[in-house]
Design brief:
Elements: H1 5-16, H2 30-39, H3 46-58, H4 62-74, H5 80-96, H6 100-113, H7 118-131, H8 134-147, H9 152-164, H10 168-182, H11 186-198, H12 202-215, H13 220-232, H14 236-246, H15 254-266, H16 270-283, H17 288-300, H18 304-317, H19 322-334, H20 338-351, H21 358-368, H22 372-385, H23 390-402, H24 406-419, H25 423-439, H26 443-456, H27 461-473, H28 492-498, H29 504-511, H30 515-532, H31 535-546, H32 554-565
Helix pairs in contact: 3-4, 3-5, 4-5, 5-6, 5-7, 6-7, 7-8, 7-9, 8-9, 9-10, 9-11, 10-11, 11-12, 12-13, 13-14, 13-15, 14-15, 15-16, 16-17, 17-18, 17-19, 18-19, 19-20, 20-21, 21-22, 21-23, 22-23, 23-24, 23-25, 24-25, 25-26, 25-27, 26-27, 27-30, 29-30, 30-31, 30-32, 31-32
Amino acid sequence: MPLPRPLCAALALAALLLALAGPAPAQPSAQVQDTARNTTQDTPGPVQAARRAQQALEAGDARAALELADQALQGGLSGDENRAVTLKIRGAARQLLGDLPGALADYSQAVTVAPHYPEAFNNRGAAFLELGDAQAARADFDRALDLRPDYALARFNLARAALELGEAPLAARELTILLAHAGPDPAAFFLRGRARQAMGLAGPAMEDYAAALELDPGAPEPRLARGGLRLAAGDPAGALEDFDHAANGVPDRAVLHFNRAVALERLGRAAEAEAAYSEALRIDPDLPDARNNRGALRSLAGRHAQALEDLDHALRLVPAFVPALVNRAAAHEALGNPAAAMADLDRARALAPGLPGLDANRARLALTHNDFSAAAQAFAAVLERDPADAAALLGRARARLLAGDAQGAAADCAALLDAAPGAGPRAEALLLRGQARFLAGDFAGADADLDAHLAARPGALRPALWRHFARLRAGLQAAPPEARCAGNDWPCPLLLLARGELAAQELERRAGADPARQCEARFFAGQAQLVRGDAVQAVRLFQAAQQTRRPDLPEYHGAQAELRRLGF
């Protein structure tokens, strides 16, 4: 992260624009003086060229400084100190012009010519740091401080190198020494804040950023850093205030708009957050986090095709980007492509097998799209981590029931009931186990479970119908359910069937073309025929229930179980 602007400028001048060192040259003879006066109008002498090179560098004219330093060095500039300082000036000019290898060569020659010249070591360290060699930079800054212990700039740069090397405690220590001896400085406070933040000391880091801003209220970098800390601390409003302020100084910084978007999203301002992500992507179209987050927002807004464009882009940039895979799975599911959704979730699981919620999401997707075996396996993966997870036990029980594994479903329900979770899970577990026992032919056990379910959820018509026929199949006396049901709207005709007021054929007619209603009608009508002793008609109805292709309904599996018991 760049340094705050005021100190950046001050450090650049201190690091690069130092006065010429060494003794003044001997007074020239009159003839030489005349020659010197004549040549200053065209080509200056080496000493004059060196001094003018420094003046040009101080004025910000790096190209002129480079040319004049070349003239001085090629013109026979005398004295090791003068040559070393001029090499440093030429190196600084080259560094400003972007020629880092050339700058490094000049600084290296300067320290060879004058091995006790701390400024040359400092400048070479700065070049190494810019080239990404923080280890070499640190060695040069250490050498500069050995030669000149009060060299504030070298100490600051040593802290920069330490931070690059991951040695945050060293950086913080050096900056504390610097602030104690050199006085308050916004860049030093900012850099120490970064070091403390890297050490996990959020409070002291926040204090350092505040101190930097007190000295330089317009500096954007401490604003950005403090905004990030506020965001992490759960203060999106404070973070947004900092990011908005920083935007005055760095309006074209993609990370600024990304962080603004995150803060806006946490404040529930989704439309503004999407606009901020879009601005970040205008500056940097290949920012994967912004692509992912904007894609997720677009998917939540129902614009799933647009979401896919962002998420596909994010995954082209980072193929192993797990959040983007999860978000793209949601978009694929919303667009009616469950196979693609499951492929993304499977890939995400392979990359991050311990990601919370991932197996539950895979299970829910599989269950929703009738892949009951895959759903049971995914719920099993959830239960491996938490065997008492009530939602996973219920989910696997439902998946097993719909996969035709009545015994497995009953076992999961028993485990959940033994764990004594809340009233809601208990009622659901009783219903599922009652249906599983019915499928397994344990009609008395089914009656007990369904009766307990209805005690918790009175008036539920479908469970009451299952209990009614469980009692009849168990040979028990049973009155039709007392559920209130008005008119012929579904599922009221099912109640009329149980009361003996509607024939099976009429029930099928009233079910209409809806496969789910047809499946229910044929299953319960088949139960009524079995109770009456008409197995032939019951078989016809159960086979018709199978033809509805609704394996997501327990009635479908109930019809399948009855056909097996009847030898079909």
